[in-house]
Structures are given as structure tokens and as C-alpha cells.
Automatic annotation (TrEMBL):
It comes from Allorhodopirellula solitaria. The keyword Transcription applies. Pfam families: HTH_18, PAS_4. The gene is cdhR. It comes from the Bacteria. CDD domains: PAS (cd00130). Residues 152-250 form the HTH araC/xylS-type domain. Gene3D superfamilies: Homeodomain-like, PAS domain. This is HTH-type transcriptional regulator CdhR. GO terms for molecular function: DNA-binding transcription factor activity; sequence-specific DNA binding. Keywords: DNA-binding, Transcription, Transcription regulation.
């Protein structure tokens, strides 16, 4: 198994060079990143290497509980199906998934927003033989007292009203920034684009209402600034991997 794992991790550094990386060294490196779930998988989407953060997020005791399994094997319901389906697409098409904003669950059922990246791994002949990736927690990266007052007030108004009219242009105007300045500052603070941030706030609010109230889904959609039930369902599923109704049932 060790030979198979080390042989898998051959990623082209250039057209002419191939770099081999020891899986154990790589997983130990990411053990020092508690805000990041790291993984390497084989051509069947089975874990070959993970870091401690990924193990703890699933409420498991050791890496041995993960190795050789697929996400659907260690996470029940639709939440386990989503990453497995993502893996299948990357492995089938050879196309990477880059900074996909999505909601993950830490045990016990604690929602965390992540930016997920998955890259295909190729053998010397160019065949896809696995993938490597990570899901990085989205967190505020600077002290809140360093956030300009106009920006903070604009964010507070949006989070309070969830006005459907809010767009990056609206946020820039309320923040007294150009759209370029807004994009740069939002990336610095949240490590997100303004569009990603707006989507995150709407979906996070909707998930709380689905979890804590009995409001109809269509009412929650409108309360959170979506134009209709269909638009809400598409956006919610894109972020969480499940429909609002399924999310509510699994709460």
C-alpha cells in the first residue's frame, strides 16, 4: 500500500519535470493547519492521506478510520454524497475545482463555511490517477476594529435586512469604496469575493431559519432576499450540496 500511495502522487511541475511527494510528509505538514481539511485520494475517490483536521471534523479518532474510504463512507446522508460526487467529476473530466464556496459540518453538527479546491493528479502518460485538495475555513482575517465604519455599517444593514437589492455595486456604494477597492478589501478580510460573501450571508441566514424555525421554505427564500423558491433552491444546493427541504430534515 505504501508503494502504491507514493507512486500515485506524481504531479507535473512543468511539461518536462515530474515531482514525487511522500504522502506521510505531506499529511504531517497539513496537520499543523487546523483550519484546513487536507486530503489525497486515489482514482476511485478513496482517501490515501488526510490531516488531523479532517479526522476531527468527522468525529473520528484516527486517520486509520478514514484511509481507504470515500467521503460517503464516513459522512451519512446527502452531506457525504456531495464531496464524493465532486471527486467523481474531477476524476472523470480531469478538470479542477477551484475555491468553491460551500458549507461543511463539524461534529457535532456545527456549520463551517469553506473554500474547497481539488486538483487532478496525473501519471507520466497523462492519465488521471487521483486527486489532491483541501477545504479551508473562511474566517475574518483582521481585527474588526480595523474595518472602516462605512463598510461595517453596510454589512450590518445587509445582514439585518437581507435586501434582495444588495449587490457588489450596492455594497461598494454604501461602503464609500470603488468596486475595485471593495473587492480588494473583501478578499483581505474574508478571503472571498464580494459575490461569494453576499451568497454566504444569504445562505447562512436561510440555514439558521431552516434549522430553528418552522417557516415554509418559500417564506424563508423571500426573507433571505431570493427572488423565488427555485432561485433559492439552486443557490442553497450549490452551497450546501442539498436542497433546503433535505437540509431541514437532517437538522
Amino acid at each position: 500500500m505504501r508503494t502504491e500511495r507514493n507512486g500515485l502522487l506524481r504531479a507535473a511541475a512543468s511539461d518536462d519535470a515530474v515531482t514525487s511527494i511522500d504522502l506521510q510528509v505531506l499529511s504531517k505538514l497539513f496537520d499543523s493547519a487546523p483550519d484546513t481539511a487536507f486530503f489525497v485520494k486515489d482514482a476511485e475517490g478513496r482517501y490515501l492521506a488526510v490531516n488531523e483536521s479532517l479526522v476531527k471534523r468527522h468525529g473520528l479518532r484516527s486517520k486509520a478510520d478514514v484511509i481507504g474510504k470515500q467521503p460517503r463512507d464516513i459522512c451519512q446522508g446527502e452531506f457525504g454524497q456531495v464531496p464524493s460526487k465532486q471527486d467523481e467529476k474531477v476524476l472523470r473530466t480531469g478538470r479542477s475545482l477551484n475555491e468553491h464556496l460551500e458549507m461543511h459540518w463539524n461534529r457535532p453538527r456545527h456549520p463551517v463555511w469553506c473554500l474547497t479546491t481539488k486538483l487532478p493528479l496525473h501519471d507520466p502518460a497523462g492519465n488521471v490517477v487521483g486527486l489532491v485538495g483541501f477545504s479551508r475555513d473562511v474566517r475574518v482575517s483582521i481585527p474588526t476594529d480595523e474595518i472602516p465604519t462605512a463598510y461595517a455599517l453596510a454589512m450590518e444593514e445587509f445582514e439585518r435586512t437581507l435586501d434582495p437589492a444588495v449587490t457588489p455595486a450596492w455594497l461598494a456604494e454604501r461602503s464609500e469604496l470603488t468596486t475595485t477597492q471593495l473587492a480588494r478589501f473583501t478578499r483581505r478580510v474574508f478571503d472571498l469575493t464580494p459575490t461569494q460573501l453576499i451568497a454566504k450571508i444569504r445562505i447562512a441566514a436561510a440555514s439558521r431559519l431552516l434549522r430553528d424555525t418552522e417557516k415554509p421554505v418559500v417564506v424563508i427564500a423571500l426573507d433571505c432576499g431570493f427572488s423565488d423558491h427555485s432561485a433559492f433552491t439552486r443557490a442553497f444546493r450549490r452551497a450546501t450540496g442539498v436542497t433546503p427541504s433535505v437540509f431541514r430534515k437532517q437538522r
